[in-house]
Amino acid sequence: MTSSLPAADGDRSVDVIVVGAGPGGSATAAWLAKAGKDVVLLEKSRFPRDKICGDGLTPRAVRQLINLGIPLSETDGWAHNKGLRIIGGGMRLQLDWPDVTSFPGYGMVRARQDLDEVLARHAASCGAELLEGRNVSEPIRDESGRIVGVTAKVVDERGKATGERETYRAPVVVAADGVSSRLSVKMGREKREDRPMAVAVRAYYETPRHDDEYLESHLELWSTTPEGGRILMPGYGWLFGLGDGRSNIGLGVLNTSEAFGRTDYKDVMRRWVETMPAEWGINEGTITGEITAAALPMAFNRQPLYADGLMLVGDSGGMVNPFNGEGIDYALEAGHAAAETIVQALARPTAADRERVLVSYIGRMKDMHGGYFTLGAQFAKLIGKPEIMRLATKYGLPRQTLMKFMLKLMANLPEEKGGGLDDRLVQLMTKVAPNA
Description:
Strand content: 25-35%
Distance between the termini: 36 Å
Largest sheet: 7 strands, mixed
Pfam family, one: FAD_binding_3
Domain FAD-binding: 14-346
Radius of gyration: 22 Å
GO molecular function, one term: oxidoreductase activity, acting on the CH-CH group of donors, NAD or NADP as acceptor
Oligomer: single chain
Protein name: Geranylgeranyl reductase family protein
CATH topology of the domain at 11-52 and 62-76 and 111-194 and 298-379: FAD/NAD(P)-binding domain
Low-confidence stretches: 1-9
Number of helices: 10
Organism: Janibacter limosus
Mean pLDDT: 91
CATH superfamily of the domain at 11-52 and 62-76 and 111-194 and 298-379: FAD/NAD(P)-binding domain
């Protein structure tokens, strides 16, 4: 089915335009194409391209990749892992991923330079038209202000504009264009300041720890003073092995921390790396690129998630878990929900009927994650205070039963129906919490 919207000379008319070929955009396009829709997926860069990220995939994200039909064996380039190792307060605790039927029992790591291209090519193989080097610059609106298309500047392999412009029209446009989401901003949807934000800093290092079977999280980042003492720095750190000779090593700092915005995060990263054991081989000589940083938008920090023909998916809608900074799984889930909503809307006979279905995406996403994100936002406020973080680390880590529950809560991996007492407690907490 093609759009009934009138197209000017040179315009392309399709069912759905998806802007941004990250995990959320590619998942949306793949599901739409599987449903037989004429969808164009516009990506401003050309693959392969990088995205600043921890590269870790919990079982929640793995479930979505399985649903999409992505081959996930280690011979296909995926590093599998068994769970999470937590280090802090002089303690070292190793926890397997929860054994539940709702999610697979393993996580993975894949560099975003590979992951995003795999997902985008998969969307194309499902029937979506993937167009790289299309930098969407402006929305096209009708008399009512509703978005009915976009204009894109064509970009060459060096990232330079060629001077060529293309125009696409569709009854629905999906913004999956990242944390800054220029398309959302031009449609009047600014970020909400009452939601937590974080900065993620990461680099790749060659290290013999590249094939670690567990993701590793450091709840304390220590450095040394010129006098030889120790100093606790803001944030938490991670080491995620990619299985290819490298590990993704990084740190996150929440805006609930007093140090947020007043810290040279790259310097914090360097100082933390300097304290790592020599046998890990993680130092300035084994870094394989620059230390880079990016913002993490959390807890639906841009709303509404749908209005005036524009639907938000992934980072553009602030779909990052405040408990742990995960965003890939929520982007993939939103892509599936967005596609299902759009398919149902396009099948309705009148514009009013279609709009009513499209608006339902807001409630669907709030029902899925609104209460959970609210809990996470409160958690982010607490751990932003160093004294609370130290107490939680000191008294929480020695209690393995508590930490198993916290892993299930923070990674959002409860049995979705029924389960044990801990599963039902997570379900209850997310239900009674107000929607983000």
